[in-house]
Amino acid sequence: MSSAYLQCIEESCGRRQDANEDPHACAFCGGLLDVKYDFDPINPKQLRQTWRQRRLSDDPIDRSGVWRFRELVPFVDPGAKIVTLSEGFTPLVEAPRAGSWAGAVQLTIKHQGANLTGSFKDLGMTACITRALSRGVCWVACASTGNTSSSMAAYATRAGMKALLFVPFNQISAAKLAQALDFGALVVEVGDNFDAAFRLLLQVAPELGLYLVNSINPFRIEGQKTIVVEMLEQRGWLSPDYIVVPGGNLGNSSAIGKGLRELKDLGFIEKIPRLVIVQAAGASPFYETLRTGATDLLAVDAPHTEASAIRIGHPANWKKARRALDWVGGFCESVTDEEIAQAKCVLSQDGIACEPASAATLAGVYKLVQAGKIERNSDVVCVLTGHQLKDTDYIMRHRTAGKEGGQRIHVEAELNSLRRELQRALLEK
Predict the structure, then answer these.
(1) pTM value > 0.85
(2) 189-214 burial: b if 16+ Cβ within 10 Å, else e
(3) CATH architecture, range 92-118+220-398
(4) DSSP notation for 94-113
């Protein structure tokens, strides 16, 4: 049977540690940890068929887009209770108009907003909440720009746990906050950005015995890596040229890189796609670090962008993300809020909607094609991480007037007024 262990990612350390413990950092040097495996012999062809057959099963574990691929996440003891909300099974959708706009690329969208709480975080949360339940945890906690908090609250209440979340005061969308409250979480509004909230949570967590589910939790990364397993299965195991993801705390890009590396090592794919991470220009510490060749992270103390899900100045997983780019020959780009808004509008013309941070991917593809870093006619998959309704305030600010966006008019309840206003509005369209 395959077995799991923890290992420090720092080259100067790299020590193997017991997976039965629950550290979020190396016990020897404080570095980030990976969950790694001594896999049983794997027959890719046979396992692909097994995964496909499970799609017909009514077993709740098989209805999960994480646990259907459980041979790749074998850190759960046989017979352990799995905490699942049928996460995964998200669509892979062609986007011809957006692809043409971006520079004649063959564009498909892997939309993680179709998860039950509306974001990719569900894939990681089923993994780390399942882990927490097996450890007898009572309280789980996170700092969040919104999506982690709503996902954690949902899975915690599903598992019979209590959820504590730290959010920056008045800096996350009301929709995301409402989700967490609706699931019964205790919400602490503290500081003016994610990084301040996260720093304070790290300080108090040991004192209160809290189980952290932020992406420094290596078991969360295990759930999120299955995004690429499902994506490649949907593509008949043919790798695209590029996979493009938004970059905030960089856990998702780290997970995708890890998933691709394991699929290649285990013989599921021959070609590894190049991974592209796109950050918002006002919150682009990782991009600036790579652009300048700096050894240490060039953190941003006051990150600013309307794409609140990636408004992070001190990404905890930057070393894992840099390693992922090294593995797959990837790179990073940054885009302005104006470029994000334009890309979001273009996606909507294909009937595809998302929260602002997700649209950074398409904005990045456009910019990179123009710069010659992504070739025209390339096969590109953009990962959209959050649902359109995660940030309705953004939509109301940007899309209520003009020929490209929706138009909102107020009309008196009188027929002639209605005719007059409709004629004017239809002519403008």
Answers:
(1) yes
(2) eebebbbbbbeebbeebeeeebbbbb
(3) 3-Layer(aba) Sandwich (3.40)
(4) E-HHHHHHHHS-EEEEEEGG
Enumerate the β-bridge partners of residue 277.
245, 332
Measured at the CA of 167, the angle between CA 175 and CA 135, to 5 degrees, comes to: 100
248 in Cβ contact with 284 (< 8 Å): no
pLDDT (tens digit, 9 = 90+) per residue, 315-334? Answer: 999 999 999 999 999 999 99
Pairing of strands 33-38, 3-8: antiparallel
Strands 106-111 and 92-94: antiparallel
Residues 95-104 have pLDDT tens digits of 999 999 999 9
Token pair recorded at residue 333: 């780009």
Q: Specify whether the CB–CB gap between 340 and 307 falls below 8 A.
A: yes
- Chain segment 103-116, per-residue pLDDT in tens: 999 999 999 999 99
CA 153 to chain centre: 17
The residue with tokens 């078991």 is 219
Give every CB contact of residue 243 below 8 A, 6+ residues apart in sequence.
Answer: 228, 231, 256, 260, 273, 274, 275, 276, 380, 381, 383
For 379, how many CA atoms within 13 A lie in the half-sphere containing its CB? 9
